[in-house]
Design a protein that fits this description.
alpha/beta, 17 helices, Endonuclease, Chain A, two-stranded parallel sheet
Length: about 475
């Protein structure tokens, strides 16, 4: 065949592929910016663009997650049916929080539960001893999910505690993200297996090094012992999280110890991730003992989020909470790259007269993310929000408090990766007492922070503004 014929056939192939791929994009992509970007790539880079979409643009994890949930859907519904009757927020809270409770019930399908206690734990200095004690006191089961599990002093303590639990006859399951497992070399997975601790990697990465921008990671940090005591928050397992060690990359963080019916919801999230990874189904009283109220009186509910049937559950929860705010919104997050609807929600709240405080690290640990975030902070300040930059060490905490009555704690950051591309786990709490405690922690952070002004932003060198603007173009992928 002549070159003209080959060119004609290649053109037909390109058009056919582009039409088919464009149809798939239109039918299945929910974000218009992502859809337009992929369609442009498909048509402007013949054949190669279609291939890239097939490789990287299709959310295969959502399909696989659906198949796993299908196999255990009956079990999940049994858990929800056996859960305590849904409760409403305490009567001393604003009536508007009743609407928020109904919203979160619809997006999570889990009931709000009473009789919970939640205790804040600051960094690994308080968090690790409490977690290790819980593992050592476990008699039936230990479930641990973490994004990063590094070798080091802290990692060794956890490995030893897990080994002791196995030796006592506890059922132990450890799930580490496939990317997070590579933050230390050799990965601690090998050590756990050597100690006969059952461990698995969530979606093991083929890339032989950690990649902080890789999609679809299990970013949850959960520990549940005997199905009765739970921990969640932002703490990974690594020496940098223990401030007493005095390391140059020290990281402040917040973790929380929970007791009560909400712990069963945490167990269900871990069990799904474990089955997704290993196909082993966890059930029975070993993992789900009869529900008992904790020692507290907090109303709480788990908010799982991920690129499966829980897609954007957390985003809708946050938007709903901001919409109900009447006098204060307080945010602490290490990475701040919210989509326009979330930015607008914060600005609208501020313009309604709500005091909006956002605490961010003065110096982040991911420069590209910090540059991109800085590019658009001006719009929030202009809208009336107050931006506080916390002094080193880097603060990895994730907190949200509305009207000193509703709190959200957990693993998620305010960026597209957490709100759309990763598996996250948060807990909402309806309690003035707990909100007051979290607000006190935020007050400490604000007191040691500097207020960012429009003058500061506009006074940056032009080179810095251009750098930040270019970084912001990658916002959907950071």
């Amino acid at each position: 065949m002549t070159p003209h014929v080959w060119g004609f056939l290649a053109g037909l192939l390109h058009v056919g592929l582009a039409l088919a791929v464009s149809a798939h994009i239109v039918l299945y992509k929910t974000d218009v910016r992502s859809a337009i970007g992929w369609i442009g790539l498909v048509w402007l880079t013949p054949i190669v663009g279609s291939g890239l979409y097939v490789l990287f643009g299709i959310n295969r994890i959502r399909r696989r997650a659906g198949r796993v949930r299908g196999r255990r859907s009956t079990f999940t519904e049994e858990l929800r049916a056996d859960a305590p009757e849904p409760v409403m927020p305490p009567p001393d809270l604003p009536p508007s929080l009743g609407s928020l409770a109904r919203l979160v019930r619809r997006v999570t399908r889990w009931p709000l539960t009473a009789g919970n206690s939640i205790e804040p734990l600051c960094s690994g200095d308080e968090g690790y001893p409490a977690m290790l004690q819980a593992i050592d006191h476990a008699t039936r089961s230990v479930a641990l999910a973490t994004y990063i599990f590094d070798r080091g002093r802290a990692g060794t303590e956890f490995v030893n505690a897990l080994e002791r639990a196995v030796a006592r006859g506890c059922q132990v399951r450890v799930l580490i993200d496939g990317v997070g497992a590579r933050y230390s070399h050799p990965p601690i997975v090998d050590e756990l297996r050597h100690r006969r601790v059952p461990v698995a990697r969530f979606m093991q990465s083929r890339v032989p090094f950690p990649h902080p921008y890789m999609n679809l990671r299990n970013h949850r940090k959960l520990l549940i012992t005997d199905g009765e005591v739970g921990f969640c928050g932002g703490l990974n397992i690594r020496d940098a999280c223990v401030l007493a060690y005095g390391l140059p990359d020290a990281t402040r963080d917040m973790h929380f110890r929970l007791r009560g019916p909400v712990v069963q919801q945490m167990t269900a999230a871990f069990a799904f991730d474990w089955e997704f990874t290993t196909r082993e189904r966890l059930g029975g009283d070993t993992w789900y003992p009869p529900v008992r109220n904790g020692t507290g009186n907090f109303a709480a509910r788990g908010v799982p989020d991920g690129p499966d049937e829980d897609f954007e559950a957390l985003l809708m929860t946050i938007l709903g909470a901001i919409a109900q705010a009447s006098h204060s919104v307080r945010v602490v997050t290490p990475y701040f790259l919210p989509d326009p609807p979330l930015v607008d929600a914060l600005r609208v709240a501020a313009m309604r007269g709500v005091t909006v405080d956002i605490v961010l690290p003065k110096r982040g640990n991911l420069r590209l993310v910090q540059w991109a975030a800085t590019a658009k902070l001006g719009a929030l300040i202009e809208g009336g929000c107050r931006l506080h930059l916390s002094s080193p060490p880097f603060d990895h905490s994730k907190l949200l408090v509305i009207d000193e009555a509703w709190s959200l704690i957990g693993s998620a950051n305010w960026d597209p990766r957490s709100l759309r591309l990763n598996f996250e786990y948060n807990v909402e709490c309806y309690s003035r007492e707990f909100a007051t405690r979290v607000n006190a922690l935020i007050d400490e952070k604000v007191a040691s922070s500097t207020l960012l002004t429009l003058k500061d932003l506009r006074g940056r060198p032009l080179v810095s503004k251009l750098r930040d603007g270019v970084a912001w173009l990658a916002q959907p992928y950071l």
